[in-house]
Amino acid sequence: MKKYLVWVLIFGVLFFWNIKGPVAQQLPPILNIGTHPVGSFFNVVGTAVATVVGKNTSMKTTVKPMAGPSAWYPMVGSGEIDLGVLNNWDAEKGYLGESTYSKLSAGKGFPVRLIAISVNNAIGLTVAADSGIYKYSDLRGKRVAGNLPTPSLQLQTEALLANGGVSWSEIKAIPVSSVAEGVKVVIDGRSDASATCAIGMPIIAELHAKKGARILPVDPSPEAVNRVKAKFPGYPVKVTPGPGRTGVEKEQYLWAYDIYVIAREDLPEQAAYQVVKALWENYKDLGAIHVLLKDWTTDKFVTKEALIPYHPGTIKFYKEKGVWTDEMAKLQEALLAKKK
To answer: Which residues, 6 or more positions from 220, have their beta carbon under 8 angstroms from its beta carbon?
Structure first.
């Protein structure tokens, strides 16, 4: 009898090892996270992801600030970047290999999958408080930072100007390499307005400390909104002054779009599962990292407005939580079919 029990015990251990061993081996020791430069809100989101995932999984995390997705997208294919933070436009165009990403991906698109929607990014052009500029139409003939190397950021800048009926040819462009530099040239007096920048960016607080900062309001009228949508997807969102909203002087509208956390397609399923599990179960910790991330609640992780397919590892988790519906399954099939 004892001999029989010993064999059962040995068989059980071997069986458990065969099941669990590969799962443990699937988890990469380090997750590299691509973001926009330090000072951008995308970098803030990436840093928050790195902090929460690194603290609540066995995987270490490293944030890799770069010029934007055009810099780190090629590193997804090579496996040098595991996760990335970007806007919905860059996610879709990069996945499909369209617009500027057509040449960069040789027309094939990049192998990426969605982990979760985080928060929306409320954007505007920022000016010094004493500039005498209060609305987008006031920028006609003025110096505006732009000609950004990341196409989506340049489109956002042009879209915001269009809200006030101003075309790119009607301003004096001040070339910059990043959104943070776009605010820096305003601080230095080399530009009247920044390029697109997100509410909550640390460098806006720097402008405010030196000159005062004003984020220009979006005109929410249907005609003005349609002019913006013709250049960049999104929607007007009402914001009020408060912590993390430096530059918002009174209740006003800004333009908003969704921020995606994505992964390389071949990131092991268990790794993607652990990432989304850590973010879901510890979402309250995100708000402690930045006040605007208090809005990153679990009801935002899954959306029928997704523009790229979700990662299988995250789908497994979302099914366990009961938020992966038949409608989401159909959307997943449709998004996958776009590249077949």
So the answer is: 236, 253
| pLDDT more than 70, % of the chain | 93
Cα of first residue to Cα of last residue in the chain, in angstroms, is: 58
pTM for the model: 0.77
Separation of alpha carbons 324 and 275, rounded Å: 17
Structure tokens at 287: 């708000």
DSSP class of residue 200?
A: T
| SS3 label, residue 63 | strand
Across the chain, what does the average pLDDT equal?
92
On the question of pLDDT at 17 being above 50, the answer is: no
Q: Confirm if 46 and 85 have CB atoms less than 8 A apart.
A: yes
* 3-state secondary structure labels for all residues of 28-46: CCEEEEEECCCCCHHHHHH
CB–CB of 157/240 below 8 Å? no
- For CA atoms 135, 139, 140, 145, the dihedral sign is negative
Q: Which residues are 331's β-sheet partners?
A: none
Q: Is residue 5 part of a domain?
A: no
Question: Is position 22 within any domain?
Answer: no
Please list the residues that pair with 232 across neighbouring strands: none
Residue 188: partners with Cβ closer than 8 Å, 6 or more residues away: none
Please report, for residues 170, 172, 214, the alpha-carbon distance to residue 165 in angstroms, rounded to integers and kept in the order given.
Answer: 10, 15, 20
Residue type, 59: M
Contact between 215 and 254 under an 8 Å Cβ cutoff? The reply is yes
| 68 shares its domain with 185 | no
**Cα(86)–Cα(285) distance, integer angstroms:** 21
CATH number (domain holding residue 287): 3.40.190.10
What letter does residue 234 receive in the DSSP assignment?
A: -
Radius of gyration of the chain (CA): 22
**Is 253 in the same domain as 264?**
no
pLDDT tens, 119-168? 998 999 999 999 999 999 999 999 999 999 888 899 999 999 999 999 99
